[in-house]
Amino acid sequence: MKAIIGGTGIDKDPRFLENMERLVTKYGETYYSVVDDILYLPRHRPGHSVPPHMINYKANVQALIDLGVDEVISIYAVGSITRRLSPGRFGLVRDFIDLAYSRENTFFDGSTREVRHTPFVVPFDRMLGARFARNAINSGNSLALDCVYITTNGPRLETPAEIMAYRNMGADVVGMTLGTEAALLKEAGIKNAAVAYSINWAAGLDAEGVSFLEDESIERLARTIIDIAQKTLCGNNA
Ligand code: HPA
């Protein structure tokens, strides 16, 4: 089974909200739907009701394990720090920095006797990412490559000094969810390609403060990415 995990701009898409199922995993409950043989999981729950620092990431990933998912395209709304990925565009994430804290971010948390240090030299599945990129280009879209995502804890947005520091650390985009989720997906051995789409310039980079794209533009962008993700996961890579 193949899956899409989506967040802002995606979790209100009526195509997925119909036929939502509830699944109780050993880490708690989550919600998903299956549309055209692809499992869709709204990471903030249907209707976007859970903030990033309160998401039950382990239940979400455990649900994918329980349902036999082996490939995921995970989609993230972000703020832009560099011009590699500017607002209104999307691209593949190559690497991440995780600054989130106080989250359940591992399956190897000492509750079993296994101590495991999962390698993260290659955090995302390159072949799956390449398939997504090919489908994006073939459908007339341009995409950014090699983005570095920094994960903050949230839910507050950043200060300008923080964003400057993150740029100096090598981050191109900022968000509040990828690090935790990508860590668990990799521990679970699920292939994952991460796609970021920018909805604002990060703090201090826009004279107007932080201003987000209009809902309509966000939804259009999200829809484009989902279409490409569906094509990629269905094996239609023409
Ligand atoms: N900061 C953190 N997370 C975000 C942002 C941002 O500017 N935009 C979208 N998600």
Can you describe this structure?
This protein is α/β, with parallel strands linked by helices. Helix content is 28%, strand content 27%. The chain is built from six helices and nine strands; from the N terminus they run βαβββαββαβαβαβα. The protein has a five-stranded mixed β-barrel with strand order 5-8-7-6-9. Helix 4 links the parallel strand 7 and strand 8. The protein is globular and about 50 Å long. The two termini are 20 Å apart. Bound molecules: hypoxanthine. Hypoxanthine binds next to strand 5, strand 8 and strand 9.
Task: Write out the strand line-up for the largest beta sheet, numbering strands in chain order.
Answer: 5-8-7-6-9
Helix content: 25-40%
User: How would you sum up the major sheet?
Assistant: 5 strands, mixed, barrel
Note poorly predicted spans: none
The number of strands is 9
Topology:
Elements: E1 2-6, H1 14-17, E2 21-25, E3 28-35, E4 38-42, H2 57-66, E5 71-80, E6 90-98, H3 126-138, E7 144-151, H4 160-169, E8 173-175, H5 178-187, E9 191-201, H6 215-233
Parallel strand pairs: 1-4, 1-5, 5-9, 6-7, 7-8
Antiparallel strand pairs: 2-3, 3-4, 5-8, 6-9
Helix pairs in contact: 3-6
Bound molecules: hypoxanthine (HPA).
How would you summarize what this structure contains?
This protein has 238 residues and is an alpha/beta fold.
Keywords:
single chain, alpha/beta, five-stranded mixed barrel, 6 helices, 9 strands, globular, binds hypoxanthine
